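Title: Prediction job returns without error message
Component: structure pipeline
Severity: low
Priority: P3
Assignee: unassigned

Description:
Job completed but the reporter wants confirmation the result is attached to the right record. Sequence as submitted:
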Amino acid sequence: MRKPQPEHDLLSEIPSPSARLWLGLCVSLTIFVVFAVYTIHEIRWLEDFQVNVVQKNRKASLQLLRLQNNTYQLAVSLRDMTLPESRYPIFYWRGEFTRLRQDMDDALALEGQYAVTTPAGDEKRRQLRDVLDDFWMTADEAFTLADQGHEDTARYLIRSQLEEKREVISSIVSRLLTLNDQAQVEAGQRVNLVYGKVKKDILLLIGVLFLVALGTGLYTLQANRKTFERLHHLAEKLQAQSQQLSNLSWKLIEVQEETLRRVSRDLHDEFGQILTALGTMLSRAEQKGLEKDSIFVQEVQKVKRIVAETLESVRNSSQIFRPAILDDFGLEQTLEWFVRQFSRQTGIHVHFEQDLAEGFFPREDAIHIYRILQEALNNVARHSKAHEAWVVLRENGDELRLEIRDNGIGFELARDMERAPGDGIGLMGMRERAQHLNGEFSMQSTPGRGTVVNIRIPVDRNTLRPEKEKVG
């Protein structure tokens, strides 16, 4: 015969998608990391390109404009120097030429520092330096002739050579500006190409990640579908087993009640009758004694007292096991009687409050309420170290409420919910009985502040026995 499969084996058969999900996650993260590194690299290249090319190119253009402006100032000065009606001698412009020469040399040096290195640009800068050197040499020669008194020769030299060389300088500067503008345009185009490439790569990455996410999602959906099918099958098994355990638990409770009923009846009827008969026989033996103060009569009286005490104890025990008062006088008086017995036996003062409408609960329901109170107060006596407790039985509309509260030491509920075997019906038994009556069981406890047990049970008026059925 095949043995039933343990639950942990059933769980081990459920496939876990964790490994493949982790693989999909790692692939996605790897793509993200690679793309992040690539994007950072491209962005840094763009930053360097813009700093080293675009911005420097702009600075170089500013220096070329500076040279062009100085060239225009040279043109104005050369025009004024060559006019026949000029009021100033040629040496008057020496300071202006010296200032322009320094400014143009400085601008040319900065332009060479900022400009992008290209063969055409380098050639034009070399030509510009040569022409400027030749221009300043000719200018020095003109100023020397003027200083020697050869004003006309100096003006002729300016008109014939300096003006021509200035035009060459202006032409070279304009060409450099054109080359710089072309480099600026090419740099912008290159930046646009890089941005376009990054944009395409981002779109490609989005597509790849979408496919990866789609594949991972489809796999997860399929894996979860299979997993949930197995879990549903397992849940059905567990539910069936839970129902079987619940039925078994309730069957045990019924067997317990039946056993207690029989024990109570046997104690009350058989042992009670035997002890009553013994008491009667001892009374007769006492009356037939030869002497009232004889040792025999005294011993008979002692045995008679013991029999009477034992009979009282047996009757009390039979009432605890299955109180006959529950069948005769109903739930309210049974609970009140039990509270008095409990207070007398344990020394714990129990306050009992009740507010019930007339009518008896069915005995098969009332016994469970009695057992819940019995177990709750027994727990108070065993565990709480309380010296006072309160029991409130109240009917509120179509609901019966039972509250048992004590002023004991309390406990951590999560830790102490499970009791040791042999602790009476225990908390699980109380909950099982309350659920059997379609009720609710709850417990609150705080260390140092006592424990409260609440039971709420719906009341069906059609099942209540009328007052006239009370057994007197």
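Comment from assignee: result matches the submitted record. The CA atoms of residues 399 and 458 lie 4 Å apart.
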